[in-house]
Write a structure and sequence with these properties.
alpha+beta; eight-stranded antiparallel beta barrel; two-stranded antiparallel sheet; elongated
Length: about 200
Amino acid sequence: MVAMMPANRNRRKKAWSLAGILLGSTLVIATVFLYNKLAWQPDHEDLTPIVKDIIQTDLDIEGDWVTLGHMEGSALTVQKKTPGKYSIRFSTGGCLDDWSSKRRGTHSNGILRLNRPVTQYLGYRKYDTLYTVKVKGFDYLISQASMRFLLEHYSKDGVVDWPEHILGSAFHRKVDESKLKNQFNRNWRENLTARSPSPVADPNL
C-alpha cells in the first residue's frame, strides 16, 4: 500500500499537468478569438456619396478575381445565386500561412457587401465591403480601407491618381493577370529609369 502511494501521486501530477495544458490552450484560443471579434469594427461611414463618380455601377462581378503579389496573394471566386446576391469563396496566404473562407454577398450600385468580414494576408487587413472600379481598361474590386486611403491621399477635386501599389493590392480579374503583370513591370522599369541620375564623367580619366 505504501509502495503504491508515490505512483498514485505521480498519476495525479500528470493529470493536473495535462489539465493545466488544456486550460492554457483553451484560454489562448479564446483570447485570439475574442481579439479578432472585438478588435475589428465595421466602418459605418458611408463612402457612397464620395465615390459615386468613381465606382463602376454596371460591372458584372461574377467570376475569378486575384491580387498581384510577390510573396503573398488573395483570390475571390464570385458566383451569382439570384439577381444581386452571390456566394463568395475567399482565399489568401503567403510564405507563413494561408486560409480560406466562404461568404455571402450582395452587389448593388457598384458596391459588394459581405455578410461577414474577411482578413487578407497582406497586412492582415479586414473588410466587408468592396467597390467596383475600372481603371485604364481593367476591372478592380477595391476594399473599403484601400478606398478610404486612396481618397485621403491620392484624390483631388474628385480626380483620383490611381497609384500602382493600391491597384496591386486590389482584386482584378484572373484573366487579366498576365497583362497586368507585364504593364506593372514595364511601368516599374520606366519609373526606375526616370529616377536614375545621368552618368557623370570621371574628371580623373
